[in-house]
Sequence to fold (96 residues):
Amino acid sequence: MSIDQVPQDAALRDLALDRLKKQADFKLHAMIYLLFNGFLVVIWWMMGSSFFWPVFSSFRLGNRRCRQLVGRNQRPRRTGRSGRPGRGPRCWSSEW
Fold:
C-alpha cells in the first residue's frame, strides 16, 4: 500500500461508516414507527370506533420513512433576499 492510497482509503472508510449509521438509524426509526402505529391501532380497537383514524398517522410517518429509505429526507433550505436561511421567498422579507 502506498502513501497515496491512505487518504482515499480514509474517505472510503468514512463513507462506509456513514452508510452503516444511516442503515442503523433507519432500522431504529422503522421499529419506532411500527410500535407507535401498533399502539394507535390498539387504542382504536379498544375504543370500538368504526372510522380507522390511525391511518392519518400511518401515512404521514410512513411517507417520512420511505423518504428516509431513498435518501430524500433533507429539505432544501429556503433563503430570502438577505441570503440567510429560513427567511422564505423575497416577497415575505421584511427588508423591503
User: Anything to note?
Assistant: The mean pLDDT is 76. The radius of gyration is 22 Å.
